[in-house]
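User: My instructor asked us to take a sequence, write out its structure as tokens, and then describe one feature of it. I'm not sure where to start. Here is the sequence I was given:
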Amino acid sequence: MLVKKFVPCIYLYRQHAVRGLNDTTIVETDPLRLVQLYNENNADELIVFDMSEDDASHEEALDMLKEICALAEVDVIGAGNVKRMEDIKKLLYAGCKKAVLDYEKEANIAITEEVSLKFGKDKILLSFEEPEVLAANRELIETYVSGMILMNPHKIRETEAVTDLPFYVQVRQIALNKLMEIFAYDKVCGVTGNTINDNYKELLSLKGLCRENGIQVETFEAAYHWEDFKKNSDGMVPVVVQDYRTQEVLMVAYMNEEAYEQTLALGKMTYYSRSRQELWLKGATSGHFQYVKSLTADCDMDTILAKVSQVGAACHTGARSCFFNEITRKDYEEAENPLFVFEEVLNVIRDRKLHPKEGSYTNYLFDKGIDKILKKLGEEATEIVIAAKNPNPNEVKYEISDFLYHMMVLMAEKDVTWEEITTELANR
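Assistant: Let's start with the prediction itself. The structure tokens for your sequence are:
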């Protein structure tokens, strides 16, 4: 049985979120606020429709989409304004996990095979109104597409009769109990549209209702029950919290059974405050939520390691991490995290740009402008090629280092971050 998903949808028009594809009434001037609300209320995925009307607004929409993907704690599906393969590439490079071909457009049907072979079948969905288009292109779809979005909720039965592919159903406005009827269809994998948008605060209770009706929904399935843990004298288990990207230790807190179960239910770290003697959802007052990426128990089953996506500061002082009071230190050579090294160098380069230093080669490049930076970058790339022909491997190392430095000068000039680069690479 398919896991059923609750999927809000952002209809993006002129940098605002509007009511629908055929209704440009503004529902939120800042779509990022909606993303944060969907994060906090247990949405399973997010669909964004680009409704831009020209190339300039399309590029602005892509910029907004990048911000949406960076902020979203769930996978983002990009749709709308696809005319050619390049548009699919832009959606995926913006951070979308999947991109949608509109099968109401012949041009989108025509590029199905091309984009699927280029980016992978798992990256490609299609949207449609009438199942007849599926029947006419059945072999193409089942070979090159991984799923679908049915834009007409009255055609569920007909869609199931045509193909075995899973599909989302866009629902404009129905009673919430009707969602159970839609989810009962075997091939429906999720519901999206205004019914979900309007009721995002109810997603947790709706998931509970689904489970009561035997419908499988997105949730954390724990391999261990609370009784499997060894508790301390207070009946609690300590939790070490770590940033899932950087591996930085953020804090240590404690869980009781209720906190453990709520963490699994919400997907957000919940603790028991020993000082206040009460349950504590991290971020409930500050907005600094910790979204669960993984929970792991140690060998003795008496400590939990939580890897999280941290919003803002972990520490009540406002510091990123609670661990900043150095007790003592012995000089030693640290094993450098490469990403930290890159960040440090890039920060120095950015500082040079903001606070010029006389005699600085970096400032010389910034003063000469983008053409000089690009010329040097090209020269350094050529030096790598020449060095690679040299039997001494050190030459390649030196030239790659020079290239990376000049590349970071370009990054500072164009305001590109390492996080954007690493995220982009991770999405390919």
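For the description part of your assignment, you could build on this observation: The domain at 338-426 is CATH 1.10.287.1080 (Helix Hairpins). Try explaining in your own words what that tells you about the chain.
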